[in-house]
Each structure stands twice: as C-alpha cells, then as structure tokens.
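PT: before anyone asks, these are the final sequences, not the draft ones from last week. 766 residues across everything. Please model them as a single complex and drop the result in this thread when it's through.
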Amino acid sequence: MHTPRLTGWQALREQPWLLALVVWLPPLMTLLFVAVFETGAPQAMPVGVVDMDHSHQSRALQRHLGASPALDLMHPFPSALAGAEALHRGEVLALLIIPRDYGRDLLRGTSPQVTAFYNSQYLLAGKFIASAMTSAGMAYAAQVGVTLRLGQGQDLPAAVAAAAPMRPQITSLYNPGMSYARFLVTSIAPALWQILIVVATVLALCWRLEQSTLPRQPAQRCGALWRLLSPIALTLWLQGVLMLAIFHYALGWSPAGHPLWLPAGLALMVLAVQSMATLILALVSDKVRALSLCAAYLAPAFAFMGITFPRGDMNTLAWAWGGLMPSTHYMALQVAVADHGAPAITLLPPLLMLALFLVPVPLAIRALPIKLASNPTEQVSS
Amino acid sequence: MTFWQRLWQAWQAELNNIFTDRAVLLVLAGGILFYAVLYPLPYQRNVPGEQAVAVLDHDRTTLARQLVRMADATPQVRVAAQPRSMAEAEALLISGQVHGLLIIPAGFERDVYLGRPTSLSFAGDASYFLIYGNVVEGLVTAATTLTVQTQVVSSLLKGENPARIPGQVMPTRIVSHPVFNPTGGYINYIVPAVFVLILHQTLLIAAGSITVKDRARRRLGLTAPALTLALPLRVVTFVAIYLLFAMLYFGFFFQLYGVPHVAAPGVLLAYSLLFFLTTTLFALWLGYLLPRPELPTVVVLVSSLPIVFTAGFAWPADNLPGWLDTLSQLIPAKPGIQGFLALNQMAAPASAISREIGVQLMLCLLYGGGLAWLAAKARARDAC
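LR: through. Structure below.
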C-alpha cells in the first residue's frame, strides 16, 4: 500500500499543534529565556540595612556596598527586629546589621565585624548577594587599611602594599563576563528543545497510526516511517542550528572549538530523541500514556545534565538516570566544543553515547502497533 | 429524583471518570510518587563536595607549598595535580580532570616577605557555575588565611604595636550567614518549590484530560449528569485528592528529605485549599479550550521549564522584564510557589503573603468565570 500523502509535511499541514511544536515554539522558547535572563546577572537585589552607628564610617561602608550593581541598599530599618520581619516577608533578600560604635572601633583598629544575613532559600540570589557583599566589603577594608596606616605615619606606597599584599586575581575560564544568561540559556534551551522533539515525534507517529495502518513488511514500514519522520527531524535539526545562532547573536556566545561539531551533535540528538519516542510509543501503544512517560523521562532533564549541580557529585542512581537522557551527552559535547575548545578525542565519547540511543530503533520499529484507534468519545473534533 | 440523589449520582459519575481512566491513574498514582523520588535525586548529596583543582607553582618555595597545603585543607578544594606547564594545566581542565587552576607566580615568597604586592591567579571553569563558585571560594579562603598570617608575622617583625595589628590586617569585615536554608543545600532550595510545581502540573494533566474527555462524551450526547452539578463536583473531588497529596508531599516527603517546614498546619491547609482551587479551575478551563485529551500533557511539558525560571525561586522575579513578570502571574504555580515558600520555609506570617492570596483569588475569578462561560456555550451547542 503506497500512501505518499501520509508524510511529515502532511502531518505539519493538518496538525496545528504539531506545527507549533516544530515550527513556532522552538525559536519563541529560546527568545523567551533570553528575555528571562536579560539582566545577565542578578541586579539591584533588595538589602535591608540596620545602621545602629550612624557614623561617617557606617555610611561610607553603605555607599561602598551600594555602588555594587548587584545590591540595592535603599531599605533602612530602625531595628534588627523590623529588618528581620522584612527578611521573613521576602521584602528584602538580605539584612546588613552595622553594630553600635562601628566607626570608633574601625579607627581604633579593633577590626569590627558587620553581620549580614542572606536568604538562602532563594539560593542563587542569596549566594550572589553574599559574594557581592564580601567583595565590596573587602574593597572597603583595603581602603580603610590604607587610611589607617597613613594615619600611623607610614608613607603611601608602603601603606598600599601592606593593605593588600597578596592580590587575588580571579579569572573565570570559558565564561569571561560571568554571565548567568549565557550559562543558563545555553543549557535550558537545549533541554526544552529536547522536550519539543519528543512530543512532536510522539504526536506525529500517533497521527500517522490514526490515519492509516502501518505496513507490516519491514522495508515498507521503514519507508513509511522515513517519509513521516524525516521532514520533522530535518526541521527540528534546523531549529537546533537556529537556537545556536540565537545564542550567538543575542548572548554573544561563540564556540571556542570547531563549530561544525555542534550541528553534528544536534543531528545525532534529534535522531536519538526520536528513537526514544518511537520506543516509548511502541511500549505503551497509547497516545496519552506515551506522553506521560515522555514527561516522566525527559521533563527533569535540565536537573540531570550536570550544569547547575555537578554530575560528579550526584549519586550513582542519579548519574545513571542522567546518562539515559540524550541531552546529558549533548551538553557534554556543547560544553567541550563551545567552552573548552576541546580536541576531537574528547568529543568522541559524547557523540558515541548519542549514537548508542539509535540501537533500539529496529526493535522499536518492529514493535510499533500497526494502528491506533482514534476514540471519538475522547476528543472534541474542532 | 431528589437533589441529593442527583448529586450522589453525579459524584459517582465523576469518581468513575477519574478512577477508570488508566492514563489519569498513571499520573495520579505513579506520577506523584515517581516525581517525588526523581526530582530530588540529583541533589541527594545536597552540597557539592570537594572539587579537584590543579596548582601551577612557578615559585616552588616553602610559602608556596604552604599555600598549596592550605588550599587542599579547605572543604571546597582538593589539589589533584601539580602540572609543570600551562599547556599541561590546560589539558587537565579541558579533559575535565580538574575544574580550577591556581597559579603561584615566580618570586612569590620573596615578594611577600619584602612586602611587595604579588598577585595570585585563580581560574575556575565557569561553564559549571556551582563548581566555579566552590573552587573560587576555597582558593580565596586559602589565600586570605595565608595573607593574614604573613601580615601578622611581618608586622611583628617590624616591631609594630600588637594591639593595632588586627585593625591593620583586617580593618573590618562582613560576616554573612545564610538563613532559612542554613546549610545552603540544594535539596532545601529546589525541593520545596519544585514539589509545588509537580502538584500543579500533574493536576493540570489529570483534571484537564478528564474534562476534555467529558466534553467529548457530552457532545456525542452520551448520558451524563448536568454540567451545573458535574463541574463543581469535579473541582471538589480534585481539590480533595490533591489535599491528600499535599499532606504526602509537605508532610512525609519534606520529613524524609529533611526540608525545613515551619508553617502552622491550619495556615498551610488554608493556603493549599486556595492554591488547589485556583489550579483546578485553571485545569478545567484548559480542558474546555483544548480539543484532545493528550494536549494538557503537551502544554504541561512545554511550560514546565519556563515556569521554573519565571516563578521567582530559581531566578529573582524582580529581574524579569515587567511584561514577563505580569504574564507569568497568570499561572497559579507562580503565586503558589512564592506563597508556600514564604509560609513554610521562610516562616512568614499569613499577612505577609496577602499579595499572593490576592493574585490567587483573582485567578479563581478569572478561570472560574472563563470556565462557566465556555461550559455554558458548550451546553447551548450540545443542546442543539
């Protein structure tokens, strides 16, 4: 039975949802995440200040901290209690308490401490505030140190050298601006793209099986699936390339290594995810349950790919579960190519892992049901 | 037939729709338990452990070796290699054997003792943020400790007044303490928010697809109880089921994972009730918009990551573009997550979340009204 009309192109024409998943949503979603992280790094985080000293020095410290773009210190509180309440309410994300006699102790050289509490429930924002406060506080301390030494009669060069004898130079490798946008968008977008691939593939297969029976003969069956899935795979692969282009133009991301490795990785990833989608549908032979399994399988992919939490620090089970997702291996490839500019020998293992996902394809194709009944009592034809 | 008999029949029909639907049961029974185990799985070790770094020591003196030992002694860093050249060090970084690099310049010890400024270079692999933060924290701690030691020694050698030394070495400092999540652990950070999201998303799938199928049956004229009974009963049933799940999640699983939870049970129950009511109305409204029962799952799958990053816990909501912050308030999960975190993790009084409660109430009206309108339209059409 030759059915040329049951191609992927036809599926895209007939199914507005499939069209959205394959054509509109991928670039829109990438741009959405570019918009989410438009500030690059957290900015102007609200910090409450309880100044119990009201001295020249306590105000100078606040000015120093306030100059950091990450911190917004315009939230004074009359007492520690009022400040703590605001911290509980989430009005401020940190609370700085400057003790009484801070200015006097600073001039006497008794090394007064300023206490800061930061909201670590919002861990990313909290840690960011803590490190911004520490570095701004150290800069202020160095400046005060010079003033103190000058006051004690040391000459300027000696005072400057003594105030900061070991100057730490911190270089962030591979992400020069320390931009959260680059770091997060370049890993969230592939995770979401993977979800779009798996959903689109399941929906396209179900559409095909609802339209007409799948040939039983292996060669014809492969041909029918090829006509159905290759246009979708090609479009989704182009979407992957477009995603990398958006990284480049919107985030200033440019791969350190040879950029052609990435389209190769994207192509293998599309095929790997399509292979898994076919296998899942073959296992359950039901559209809704297949999608539920896809959700269970790939929805948490972002957490398992080792970007926000190192894969080396996961337990064996989490590490293995992460290994069962194509996105994990694609991200290993993308980090190696784009950030490390790694040599080919480092790139082969993730590519091989992606290729391994193609092993169950013959089994999945054989096990696909020949037909799915579209149940009129379950859908509202529009 | 009395009103109560019709009510009882309608409720039986609703329960029957839910508990004979294998796809919905898969989500309600399997999904709820599976996700509760799966999502916290990557973070079981909670705080990332010691990260391997390489030290490129151009100085090879006692002080340099002391710095290396101090770095190794910090909980964040383990000195795994001492390469001889920059090329060797880069190869280690690229292969992922180490995630950071400390470069000690030649003449380091001499310069420190002569009081000349020297610079130590730290480099961390910033493609992995958490690793980077830990490596830098460990290396800076080691360098600061050593700085303080050498400064104290050199000040004493110069015969300075010992009483003044603390002020000279460290004129002032900010000591920061984490609150609400004292260990800074990932479980406490991710689990409370993601659990609310899991409840929200599974509720959308289950109640949404039940509603799509119910609409299809009504359209075919298959006997079904009146919509004015069926819809309120469906809302009540799902809210009741999800209150049980909330007890399982916020009670049993929080206990299991050691997540701090401090809200008074009554307040938590009241806010859960409001949250599930809003979410169920949203789910039923979606069920009236979407034509096929698999589409709620598609919507949930595609929307999960955007919700995670606009809900305000993973990324500060103040930093979102204004239009996106407003738009994302339309999804009950956002005020839900913010309200639950404030009440249960940050010990806020109920009055502190009046904004979230207000948003939930408005969403209730919006989706409840939308649902009533769509249902009335569908009933008029089915009657023709």
